[in-house]
């Protein structure tokens, strides 16, 4: 019985590690894209007033 419980525990540990590795593999590019969108939005928000100022002066 003890041997069976150890085998079952090892199998569940392996499944958990495999699922976490798969999740992190999918999550990394998604988080990078979200961070890039946030930074791009901030950069555009900072430069838009400068561009509108150039139109106003003319």
Automatic annotation (TrEMBL):
Keyword field contains Amino-acid biosynthesis: no
Transmembrane portions of the chain: 30-53
GO cellular component term of the entry, any: plasma membrane
Protein name per its UniProtKB record: PilC family type IV fimbrial assembly protein
Lineage: Bacteria, Pseudomonadati, Pseudomonadota, Gammaproteobacteria, Enterobacterales
Organism annotation: Proteus myxofaciens ATCC 19692
Cellular localization per UniProt: Cell membrane
Keywords associated with the record: Cell membrane, Membrane, Transmembrane, Transmembrane helix
Domain Type II secretion system protein GspF: 5-49
Membrane topology field: Multi-pass membrane protein
Keyword Cytoplasm: no
């Amino acid at each position: 019985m003890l041997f069976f419980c150890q085998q079952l525990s090892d199998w569940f540990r392996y499944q958990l590690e495999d699922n976490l590795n798969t999740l992190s593999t999918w999550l990394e590019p998604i988080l990078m894209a979200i961070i890039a969108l946030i930074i791009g939005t901030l950069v555009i928000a900072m430069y838009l007033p400068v561009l509108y100022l150039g139109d106003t002066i003319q």
